[in-house]
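Anyone able to model this chain together with pyridoxal-5'-phosphate?
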Amino acid sequence: MNDRKVYLDHNATAPLRAGARGAMLAALDSANASSVHGPGRKARRLIEEARERISRFAGTAPDAVIFTSGGTEANALALRGTVFGALAAEARITRVFISAIEHESVRANAMALAEQVPGLKVSEIPVTADGVVDLAAFRLQLMQGKGRALVAIMAANNETGVVQPIAQVAKILCAEGGEAVHLHVDAVQAAGRMTLAFDDWGADTMSLSAHKIGGGQGVGALIVRDGAPLVPLMAGAQENGKRAGTQNAPGIAAFAAAVDEMDGAGEVERIVRLRDGFEDGLRELTGGEVVIFGQDSERVANTSNFAIPGLSAEAALIALDLEGVAISSGAACTSGTVKPSHVLAAMGVAEDLARGGLRVSFGWTNSQEDGDAALGALRHLLERKRRLNARVQGAQVPTLEPAAA
Ligand code: PLP
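re: yes, here you go
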């Protein structure tokens, strides 16, 4: 990422923190944590210390933490592991509810389950125009059917940053579903941007990913409630039999180090000021024309998703990139495709406007100058666009002056 002067895409990947880099390098030649010899025991100790650290961060006990290769695998394990685990425990799940704004890794697994498991039905829970799960609609959906259910709702959305009412969802589940409902929370984008409270939320599983908090790519965790009927995606003894494969000791050490480095730095307060200052600048720059998605909802500190009417996301991305400013259009995983974001569509944003959706996500590396640089690059682009429009109009509108004799 050193080739980027200004990096404002922390929701895609947050740059590696110094502490995480140090911990990763120190653990690079770790032995296999399953080996019984001294070096193996050393690797195991490192992993168990990290497990303890991550569990406090997640708001639960160390035994609940299952290390994975990232958020995508954690989501797959939560959905597939729970559905097949419940089947094995003769407590078959017949209904899966996912919010309409879930990450592709949740959506794709839910859809695959609907094809693979006879009798399993997947329903989307709608969101309001503000990007929040519609609790009344969800309660109705849940009450209308029968049978055990798995419900997946993210803690904060990756595109808009809108925080979801997990505690209220859990309350509805308690009242309407009781023991027969599993709650999965994708907290990949909430981690480090708001407090995680796995136990207090009453969730059954929760996903985390290290690279969203500067802990390095390719490692994450699934937090699993004691007694949840989870089977592994592949058979193996590691991670208490819930996740097969030699653990990524350097990645796990870096994950824990990133959590350590983040704590107590007043980072969230600093970042929310950067984001809010940037949005004030956007309003000023566009004479109030900018549309900021989810701005009236509770949002995590770092994310701003907006569109400037008449400005295409592709044009803006390229123009900012040329000025050394890295931002994103919608989610990184959907960048490069022309399909407008499913999140903005679920919020009822008109397709034209959604096609202009841009995401700026701040993080630990950023300062006021970075937000200013993004605003400056947008200003240049809008000015060029205005000049071009004026020229095009000038060329098209025939002059009304009588021709000179
Ligand atoms: N869930 C959310 C909300 C995400 O934003 C992402 C990544 O963009 C993931 C899951 C997947 O995480 P990973 O990149 O670690 O596989």
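The pocket of pyridoxal-5'-phosphate is lined by residues 70-72, 75, 103, 105, 154, 158, 186, 188-189, 209, 211, 220, 333 (CB under 6 Å).
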